[in-house]
Amino acid sequence: MEQYAFEILLFFAALAGSVLNAVAGGGGFIAFPSLVFAGASPVNANAISTVALWPGNIASAKAFQNDIKASKRTLIYLLSISGLGGFLGAMLLIFASSKAFEFLVPYFLLFSWLLFSFSSKILAYFNSRKEAQKSFNYDHKKLVPLLILGIYGGYFGAGLGMMVLTVFTFYGMKNLNEMNGLKVLMVAVNNGVAAFTLLFSGLIDWHFTLIMIAGALIGGYYGASVTRKINQDILKKIIIVIGGLITLYFFIVK
């Protein structure tokens, strides 16, 4: 009975996590700790979460395809950087110390929670100081920040979507639908490359993963379709409370 309870928990955690990633970000606050509560080690939970939520990102990206106005060259640039970062981050997760990862998890969660909590103020600050652009414009100087974000995404990834949105706003983008579309597409490629790399790492529990993939596909598709209708302020407040409690928990049990 307890095993079925964990399976149900993981299905709905993946569903909710994919909805949140499509709508407002913050899905990592749901999927990752749910796996830890179900008995996975932090490193395994992170690897499983990366693989399991990836199909949801693909479903979300499909729903945003008409909002993306960036040129083909720019898309190749963005997705190549995201993919390279995902590969490097996943390799870091596989070969770096698991003790170091466990030590860093509460701080990653805290940073992600702070960024998510104050994202409106951060985005408004950059919006007020940057000249508006129709879409993302290619520039070699934008390489390093996006690559660093990609490595972080492959290594841990919680809050990656919000970090990408912040960088886009810093670069002058103001069309939220296109920003969300590019964000979801970049995260999908980042997590996809990281997930493929992690498939051969021995860190994946396929029983947990397949259950979560089913939830992620449903949540990813329908999450993207309601992103223009849902009251994001209320949803964000709920995520802030949940994320804060989960972050506090990981610091207590550290």
Automatic annotation (TrEMBL):
Presence of keyword Transmembrane helix: yes
Principal localisation: membrane
Q: Where exactly are the transmembrane stretches of this chain?
A: 76-98, 104-126, 146-173, 193-222, 234-252
The UniProt entry, under Pfam families, shows: TauE
Q: According to its record, how does it sit in the membrane?
A: Multi-pass membrane protein
Q: Which domain of life is it from?
A: Bacteria
Ordered alphabetically, the record's keywords are:
Cell membrane, Membrane, Transmembrane, Transmembrane helix, Transport
**GO terms under cellular component:** plasma membrane
Localization per record:
Cell membrane
| Record family assignment | Belongs to the 4-toluene sulfonate uptake permease (TSUP) (TC 2.A.102) family.
Q: Would you tell me the protein name for this molecule? A: Probable membrane transporter protein
The record lists the organism as Flavobacterium circumlabens
